[in-house]
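Weekly structure sync - notes
Attendees: PM, LS, DV (DV joined late)
Agenda: review two folding runs queued last week.

Item 1: First target. Sequence and structure tokens pasted below for the record.
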Amino acid sequence: MVLWQSYLKNISVKMYLTTRLRKNKFLILRKWVSVIHNFAYIIGLFRQLLTGVPITLMFILISWIIGFALSGIITLGRLSPKKYFSFPLNTLVSFVRSVPIVLQLFLVYYGFPVLVEKFIGVNINNINKMVFCVITFSIYYGFYLSEILRPAYLSVKQEQRDAAFGLGYTKSQANIHVIIPQMFSVAIPSLGNEVINLIHQSSILFVLGTVDLMGQADMIITTDYTASPLLTYFCAGMIYWVITIIVSIIIRLLEFRIDRYQVDDVKGGRTI
């Protein structure tokens, strides 16, 4: 009797262990299937989001080029001794720096077509929305960057200007060959920070319905009811992070290259 009970007990234990092992294998298999499925979903999500990256990068490049060129003109106007040049520009700089960029975007989007139609008689309401975005950010960074270039220009020592004039340079030649190169060695770090700020602020473009990176993320969430908003925005943030890292590396290399030719009259005692 005792042997029979022991035999039944061993069989029960073996059956229990076998069943438990099968369940564990099944659970492990389910977990791996879930991981693979989630990984495939995340890869697909990144692929969808990356379709908006070229638009974002193109917008950043165009806005920065136009804004930087505009900032040079604004800086010259603000440095002018003539008040009818400098005073209006200083007032506009104060306005642009004080008003949120998203509000400026709406002002340009709704106000610019009205002005064009009133003074030129052309209806531009059907124009691509990205044009209004480029106009807004170019104006914004044109005035904003002048706040970096102006003090950088004034930071160049008067002795450098006097030396250039002593060598027979005209004012424009002195600016091109002496003042501006030294000015940029001072301004590059701040300009680099503004490039990164432009990358971050470009994320508001989706409020006008543009299909940039953030617009693509918003479209995924609104059109796919199974999409996770948290995961979608997290993946978009990862892409912005990678873009920012790449741009930061480029800026650091540019700073290093400029610093190699920067005049250091304290350590080197050399003049150029």
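Item 2: Second target, run right after the first with the same settings.
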Amino acid sequence: MLLYALACRHGWGMRPNQKEGVAWLRKAADSASLEVADDEDLVKDGKTVDIVERKTRKAQFALSIYELGVSHMNGWGIEQDKVLALRCFEIAGSWGDGDALAEAGFCYAQGVGCKKDLKKSAKFYRMAEAKGISMIGNSW
């Protein structure tokens, strides 16, 4: 679902349809969140769940939320809402998406969707760097 959503949004192999892309992104996020919740229920019941599958589902959920944030930030298929975009980046970052952490850091550094806060920006940039995201000027 996630890849189809991105194909719709960007027109990969089809005509671009950003509204449909956002609808599929929401479905992908909902589906991934249900799969993550199912995994957590199985673990609580004492059943084993493949660790690779769990990580994959969590990463897919984080990426879906990140891409929703990108859509909100740019107004692609949905009304532009930079505050909500920043919130999406923070949520996706908390689930382990390094790109989302870098975007949140940028938003706080530039005051996009929030009041400028260089301490929060540095925190998000450092977390992104810990996830393997390297950027020019980010080696304090």
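Discussion on item 2: Residues 1-80 form one domain.
Action: LS to circulate a short write-up before next sync.
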